[in-house]
Every structure is written in structure tokens, then in C-alpha cells.
Amino acid sequence: MQILRCYRAICVAAFAMAALSARADDIATQAPPPTATSPETITNKVELKKQAEANAKAKKEAEKKAKAEAEAKKKAEAKARKEAEAKAKAEKSKSGHATTNTPAVKKAPPLPISAEKEQRLQELLKKYKADQLTPEQYQTERAKILAEP
User: Fold this and answer.
1) Is 44 within 8 Å of 33 (Cβ atoms)?
2) What are the residue ranges spanned by the domains of the chain?
3) Do 88 and 105 touch, CB atoms closer than 8 A?
4) What is the CA radius of gyration of the chain?
């Protein structure tokens, strides 16, 4: 049992060493990176700088264009709103009355009762609105008045 553990540890260590050795060989065979003073590096840096400037300029132009488009859209919306208001105002002046979103209040048709009953109902309603009667008393009295011949 002891020998088996030692053998396993040796195999793992040997495998790790082989992997490190292979990695070291790969690194050694790669071309060294160009030095900072080589002409290729200097040319690449100049090209990268020019490219970055061009990208920044393009981005700035795109932002400017988007801003101009937003301004134009905003002006168009304001113009459309003004035209709609002017049209509504013209319609209002032609029709002679204001058009509103709320429906007009319609009066109820007159009740088929005598003038005396109507007067008594109005007095009863005034008392109810002045909190001199409870809702139950109002309904009872109203029913009595309407039930009379």
C-alpha cells in the first residue's frame, strides 16, 4: 500500500515535469516580440495612433449627426403641435363653441307631475342638501309626495 502511494506520487510529479518542459519548449521556439526601438514597432505604434484618432473623429461626427437629427425631430414635433393647435383653434372659431373632451351635461326631461308637487320636491331637496334630513327621511318623504294623486 505504501509503495503504491509513492509510485502514484512519482508518476504525478513526472507528468507535471513533462508538461512544464513541453511548455518551456513552446515558449522558447516562439519569435521574440519586437523591441520598442525596432522600425516595425515604431510604425505599428504610429499606425495605431492614427487609427485611434480616426476612430475618435468618426465617433465625434456620429454623435454630432445624432444630435442634429434629434434637434430636427424635436423641431418637427413642435411644428406639428403648433399646427394642430392652430387647426383646433380654427375649428373652435368656426363652430362657435369650444370642443372639449368632457361630454355635455344633458338636462333630464321634465317630470310628469304638477307644479305643486315639483315645488314640494324642490323644498324637500333643499332641506336634504342642508343636512336637515337623513337620506332615509328624504327618500320616504319623496316617495309620499310622488305617490299622491
Assistant:
1) no
2) 39-93, 115-147
3) no
4) 47
End-to-end CA distance of the chain: 120
Average pLDDT of 129-146? Answer: 93
State pTM to two decimals.
0.33
User: b or e along 113-147 (b: 16 or more beta carbons within 10 Å of the residue's beta carbon)?
Assistant: eeeeeeebbeebeeebeeeebeeeebeebbeebee
Q: Is the pLDDT of residue 101 over 70?
A: no
Whole-angstrom distance, CA of residue 145 vs CA of residue 133: 15
Alpha-carbon distance of 55 to 96, in angstroms, equals 61
Phi, psi of 38 (to 5 degrees): -75, 150
Closest CA to 33 of 24, 44, 25, 22: 44
Contact indicator for 140, 116 with CB cutoff of 8 Å: no
Alpha helix ranges (H) inside 1-134: 2-29, 39-95, 115-129
> What is the rounded CA–CA span in Å between residue 141 and residue 144?
5
Instruction: Identify residue 60 by its one-letter amino acid code.
Output: K
